[in-house]
Amino acid sequence: MVPRLMRDPLTGARVILAPGRAARPGAFSAPVPIPDDGECPFCAGRENQTPPEISAIRSKTSRANDSDWTVRVVPNRFPAVASSGMGIAGAACGVHEVIIETPRHGQRLVDLDADGVTDLIGVYFQRLRDISIMPGISRALVFKNCGANAGASLVHEHAQAIGLNMVPPLMGAEERRRARYQLKTGRCLVCDLMGRARQSGRRVIFDSSQGCAFCPPAPRFAHETWFVPQDHGYPSATAYRALALGLLHVLRSLERLVPGAAYNLVLAGPAPCEAETHHFVLKLLPRLTGIAGLECGGGLHVNPVPPVHSARLLRESSQQA
Ligand SMILES: [Zn+2]
Ligand SMILES: [Zn+2]
User: Fold this and answer.
1) Count of domains observed in the chain
2) 156 C-alpha vs ligand 1 centroid, how far in Å?
3) How much is the mean pLDDT over the chain?
4) What residues are paired with 161 via a beta bridge?
5) What is the pLDDT at residue 298?
6) CA of residue 49 relative to chain centroid, distance
7) What's the pTM value of the predicted model, to 2 decimals?
8) Nearest ligand by distance to the CA of 41
């Protein structure tokens, strides 16, 4: 297949789909282990090594900062943004939190059960909702770096939530494209992308009445998958469950396909005035190939696996369970 220049319909990012690149030696990076000195501040029993918790899922009888919890949200000790100075020109301000996803060191998201992942999805959305209404915050984002190739520096499974006093460029680009599409067609771009994926079914990996998991038409990353709830606005508990089942299904397939695969998860929050109408997209961005010169210097992503091929591999991999 001849390499093809594509455009991510949501962000407008340009992508070269180049299947021939998959055949070159070292096309896919092997997982790199994260150094682990055993001094992990996220383990149960070491709650005094983090700042006091913001929220947690814990038993009704336990108290804040006790060791009896399953998910714990704490301020990031090394924040990317300042917590004060909102009014100072050029200051990057906001909030930066860590979502500790399990009390057990070494337990991975892909190893959790459906109830555990449903709880996590609920926490992701709750943090987005809470942070986005804080004074001075323009946009909130939940993201997860899993594996050294995806930017993780700690073994203990965690995600991060950030609130910013500005609109991140990709989120801004996506909002403008969604708004333009709505103006031009009167329809929701995300609904239409999900509809197109369902129409042929070739890019769909997991589907239900509550939402759909599919490979986007111009994925920046090999095996990139989007999880889209059926309805607009912050999801219901039922939709959390559907998102969790879809995410687990695809993560387990990816793990069988590429054991130890590094990945990022990204869940962008809406502009505050669009909270009720926003169509959320949870993006899984596997990091099997490096970000190299063309990506850094030209803003052009090269993906060696076309989305139809990815979806087929992920579907087949799930049947091997
Ligand atoms: Zn730990
Ligand atoms: Zn929609």
Assistant:
1) 1
2) 5
3) 93
4) 97, 142
5) 87
6) 27
7) 0.95
8) 1
In a domain, 22, yes or no: no
Residue tagged 């203990």 (tokens) = 156
Decide: 142 and 99 in contact? Cβ < 8 Å.
Answer: yes
Q: Considering the domain boundaries, does residue 213 fall inside one? A: yes
Q: How far is the CA of 120 from the centre of ligand 2 (A)?
A: 23
Q: How far apart, in whole angstroms, are the C-alpha atoms of residue 227 and residue 169?
A: 22
- For residue 83, the enclosing domain spans 39-319
Q: Check residue 30 and give its pLDDT.
A: 73
User: In angstroms, what is the span from residue 268 Cα to ligand 1's centroid?
Assistant: 27
Identify the nearest ligand to the CA of 155 by its number.
1
Q: Please give the full DSSP string across 73-88, using - where no structure is assigned.
A: EEE-SS-SSBSS-TTS
The CATH code of the domain that includes 219 is: 3.30.428.10
Report if residue 13 sits inside a domain: no
Residue 140 CA, ligand 2 centroid: distance in Å: 20
Identify the pLDDT of residue 22.
Answer: 65
Q: Look at residue 261 and tell me whether its pLDDT is greater than 60.
A: yes
User: What is the CA(321)–ligand 1 centre distance, in A?
Assistant: 29
Helix residue ranges per DSSP H, the chain: 114-132, 169-185, 189-200, 237-257, 293-298, 307-319
Question: What is the per-residue pLDDT for 282?
Answer: 98
- Asked if residue 10 belongs to a domain, the reply is no
The more confidently predicted of residues 203 and 87 is 203
* Nearest ligand atom owner, CA of 190: 2
Q: What percent of the chain has pLDDT over 90?
A: 80
Band (pLDDT 50/70/90 cuts) for residue 38 is confident
